[in-house]
Hints:
By secondary structure, the chain is of the alpha/beta class. Helix content is 54%, strand content 12%. It folds into 2 domains: 4-159, Rossmann fold, CATH 3.40.50.720; 195-290, N-(1-d-carboxylethyl)-l-norvaline Dehydrogenase, domain 2 (Orthogonal Bundle). The protein starts with a strand and ends with a helix. The site of NADP nicotinamide-adenine-dinucleotide phosphate has 22 residues, from helix 1 and helix 4.
Amino acid sequence: MSDVTVIGLGAMGAALTQSLLMAGHRVTVWNRSAERAKPLVERGAVQASDVQQAVAASPVIVVCVLDYEASHSILEEAGGLLAGKVLVQLSTGSPLDARDGERWAKAHGADYLDGALLATPSQIGRPDTPIFLSGAESAYRKAEPVLKAMGGGLMYRGAEPGAAAAWDIAALSCMFGAMFGFFHGVRVCEAEGLSVETFGDMMGRISPVIGEMIRSQGKAIAAEDYGNPESSMEICAGSGTLFLRQAHEAGIGSEFPTFADGLFRRAMAAGLGEEKLAAMIKVLRSRGATE
Length: 291
Ligand code: NAP
């Protein structure tokens, strides 16, 4: 028996396997394209000849393939062998995917954990690598020793299986939102002949201030406290107008300014001008209600 089986040896599955081997775990691997197992076998992994053998080999089965559809097509062939095991799904998906995954695993007698990796393959296995996990706590405890080898920053998000995927999507939307703003900022710098590298360095340095802003918006929304703003929605909305005007003046793309200005305009039209920026959530909530 191995300690853990890894199904899926793409860039991420290979990195996960490598971190498990480095931590001294006995690992069985399987991948649709068998040749991808070769470098891992050279480092000590055992290659299963088929999915059934892979599932039978370990008490903890980690799956990391393209998506849930791919995962389902693989596991369907070995569902009968999953009873009594912990299935850890690390392929990226939605909360609904995770809930369906748990239902399927339970129907086959397996415990289920759903996880989201907040890291690139080269960041796997570090003491602070963040991984969100959700599902039955008993399953988490059983899988914890192998999961720890993949990332020291395990964050168990509770029994609701969709929680890890929801945290992942929420965190990614915050990250990519910032990135799109950054890329527009790069175009502003380029239009004015400023150093893009210096701009990146500066934003990295002041990122704790942005972190503070995010934390304070979260607190205001949680408390539904939108009054007495230091910087009102109306003042912030001026930035949206300015983004658009500058983009037109400089002849650069206006995708990000149009998006930001559009939301500010809706906030102003909704009468939120004297409230905190956090009141933007009311605009997004009203959109959800009308779609
Ligand atoms: P990848 O390098 O493209 O590998 C994809 C894996 O999925 C391969 O093992 C591939 O098998 C398998 N696969 C795809 N379609 C399949 C099918 N229909 N049937 C069976 N196997 C199939 O992707 P990756 O970077 O390893 O990503 C894997 C998961 O990790 C994804 O859900 C991704 O979102 C998540 N993730 C990745 C990163 C990252 O930075 N790479 C970060 C966080 C999360 P073959 O080798 O046979 O093609």
